[in-house]
Amino acid sequence: MALRVGIAGISGYTGVLLYRMIMEHPELTLTWVGAGRASGEPLSKSWPGIPGGDRLVQAVDPDAIAEACDAVFLALPHGVSGAVGRDCFARGVRVFDLGADFRLRDPAVYAAAYGLAHPAPGLLAEAVYGLPEKDPAALAGARLVAVPGCYPTATGLAALPLVENGLADWLIADCLSGISGAGRSPSARNLYCEVSESAEAYGVGGAHRHTPEIEQLLGVPVTFTPHLVPMRRGMLATVHARPRVLPSAAALRALFVDRYANAPLVEIVDAPPATREVRGTGRCRIFPTVDTARGVVSVFSAIDNLGKGASTQAMQCLNLSFGLPETRGIPLFPDAP
Fold it and tell me: Which of 143, 153, 78 is nearest to 110 (CA)?
């Protein structure tokens, strides 16, 4: 019997990518779609030309979600997703939150990062952090999953083998992100005339909201600097560490190969990856290398910020939660050209 699944936030980029995956997933049936400002409109108003565009977008109502769904993806803003997730969870729906509200374990850290009181602090102990490559067993049967942010995913996958093997007690992470990471609401961050032919750093000096999430995931201090670059989608993380004992390039590569041997969506490659290699997919490609002269280890990680950084990761979490094949319904072939 197919699982009944809903999407709250269908009018955004991550919502529509979830829609596509659910429609192509053999074990899932899409039974509910909702949004805020787009509620009451046909889906085609938000996404012209989409199959099933005559479907009416509903208001986000936990009672309606619980009646229609076994599980729901929340592609909603922080502060909103936590309240909706709390109410859906209380009604027995499995919640996969692509927002930030259940990622940080400490509500005080959340308040400092996001500027508001946590909407459901009593559920933080229940939430499972949904980076499958960190601990896939923790996702089995999970009823409330905090899908990681795109920057923590790209940085975390690059850095986990270093931290776990004592090769890093402090990291530098520089990340490039496509403009879709800024969402669909018009602003200077995503208008063509503002971002074309330009690149900029932002959230510098530890100010970016994802910094505490990255440090919570890795357990070490991280100097994290995000950059917005003029491409539609994609993310490239460059992570540097200076270990006390420098491994050889071959030993470092073997460490990464072994760490991700059972991670079907992570590939260790022989050269720095490009974002085009993972565009439109749920995959991550990683290249570790050693600068012997300077005693530095560098790791390069490429993901699709909307894919492995959001929607496909949420699907991966749902698959593991319900005991389905981990990659079921997740696109593996990059968009080309």
Answer: 78
Count the Cβ atoms, other than its own, within 10 Å of residue 301: 28
Contacts of 128 (CB under 8 A, 6+ apart): 138, 139, 142, 144, 145, 146
Residue 83 belongs to some domain of the structure: yes
Q: Are residues 120 and 182 in the same domain?
A: no
Residue 244 carries which DSSP code? S
Q: Are residues 175 and 299 in the same domain?
A: yes
Give the chain's mean pLDDT.
Answer: 96
Q: What is the mean pLDDT of residues 6-10?
A: 98
Active site residue 317: no
Residue 142 lies in a domain: no
Cross-strand pairs, 241: 297
In whole angstroms, how far apart are CA 205 and each of 143, 174, 264, 325? Answer: 36, 12, 35, 41
For 115-136, what is each residue's pLDDT tens digit? Answer: 999 999 999 999 999 999 999 9
| Mean pLDDT, residues 230-236 | 96
Q: What pTM does this model have?
A: 0.96
Q: Which of 113, 194, 201, 158 is nearest to 309 (CA)?
A: 158
What percent of the chain shows pLDDT beyond 70?
100
- The Cα–Cα gap between 36 and 93 comes to 20
Handedness of CA 53, 30, 92, 153 (dihedral sign): negative
Among the options 69, 88, 150, 317, which is catalytic? 150
Query: Is 223 found in the same domain as 96?
Result: no
Single-letter amino acid, residue 72? V
* Average pLDDT, integer, range 12-17: 97
55 and 185 share one domain: no
**Claim to verify: residue 117 and residue 175 sit in the same structural domain:** no
- Give the separation between CA 299 and CA 290, rounded to whole angstroms: 9
Mean pLDDT of 15-27: 97
> Is the same domain home to 299 and 168?
yes
CA distance 148 to 96: 10
